[in-house]
C-alpha cells in the first residue's frame, strides 16, 4: 500500500470509541512533545517567528505549541489529506494546515525559523531526504523519534506493533545524529525521555494492568536515571534534538 493511502486510512477511523481513545492518546503525546520542543528551543536560545511542522498529522502538537505561544505563525504539512482535514476542523487560531506530496514542502528556502519533525522520520522510506527538506526550510530543526533499536523493541511482538503503526525505521541515537550530519545539520542540544506513567498505563484496563504499567514506568525511569545510555539499549525512550543548519 502506498504511504498516503496507509495514513489516510489510519486517520479515517470508523469506530468512534477507538477514534476518541486515539484522540486522547494524541493529546497526551502532544503535551509531552511540546514540552520537549519548548525545552530544546530554550536551551538553544531560539525564539521563532515562523515555525513549520512537517508530518503534523491532525495538528495536536501544533495546537499545543500555539497554546503556549511558541511562535506567532505556525504551519503544518502532512502527507495525508485526511489528517489535514481533521487538523483544519479543530479551528486553531494562527495555525495553517496543508497537505503535500511527502517530499517537497511548497515553500521557499528559509521560509521558517524552525522546522519540526516529530515522530515522522521513523515512518518514511528516506528519512535523510525529509530531514534535508526541513533544513532547506529553516536554519533550526527539531527532530523527535522513538529510539527503537534496543533489546525490548526487537521482540517480534513489538516489531509487529511498530509495523502496524507504520514504523519502517528503527533508530538509535547515533543513527539520528548521522542523519542530521548528512542533512548538513549540527546537533546543538538533545534530550531523552523514558515516558511517564500516564503513557505506560494508557489503555490499561483493570487494577492489575494499571499496577503493572505503573511498576514498569517506575523501573524504566529509575534505570534511565542511573544510566541513560544503557537504558536506550534496553528499551524504547523518546529522543529529541535541536540542530542548526551549517549553511
Ligand atoms: C506518528 S504521526 C506524528 C504526527 C505528529 N507529528 C505528532 O508528533 O503528533 C506520523 C505522521 O507522519 C506523516 N507522514 C508519513 N510520511 C510522511 C512524509 N513523507 N512527509 C510528511 N508526513 C509524513 C503521517 O501521515 C502521520 O501524520
Describe it for me?
This protein has 247 residues and is α/β, with parallel strands linked by helices. Helix content is 47%, strand content 21%. It has ten helices and seven strands. The protein has helices at 3-11, 16-44, 60-67, 81-89, 127-137, 156-164, 173-182, 197-200, 207-226, 228-234, and strands spanning 50-54, 73-78, 95-99, 112-118, 138-147, 185-193, 237-245. A seven-stranded mixed sheet has the order 3-2-1-4-5-7-6, with helices on both faces. α1 (3-11) runs parallel beside α4 (81-89). The longest helix has 29 residues, at 16-44. It starts with a helix and ends with a strand. 38% of the residues are buried. Residues 3, 7, 29-30, 33, 54-57, 60-61, 78-80, 83, 102, 118-120, 123-124, 130 line the site of S-adenosylmethionine.
Mean pLDDT: 92
Please, how many helices? 10
Sheet/helix structural class = alpha/beta
Strand content: 15-25%
Measure the end-to-end span: 37 Å
What binds here, in terms of ligands, is: S-adenosylmethionine
Based on DSSP secondary structure assignment, what is the total number of beta strands? 7
Characteristic key phrases:
seven-stranded mixed beta sheet
Question: What is this structure, in a nutshell?
Answer:
Helices cover about 45% and strands about 20% of the residues.
Question: What secondary-structure arrangement, pairings included, does this model have?
Answer:
Blueprint lengths: L2 H9 L4 H29 L5 E5 L5 H8 L5 E6 L2 H9 L5 E5 L12 E7 L8 H11 E10 L8 H9 L8 H10 L2 E9 L3 H4 L6 H20 L1 H7 L2 E9 L2
Parallel strand pairs: 1-2, 1-4, 2-3, 4-5
Antiparallel strand pairs: 5-7, 6-7
Helix pairs in contact: 1-4, 2-3, 9-10
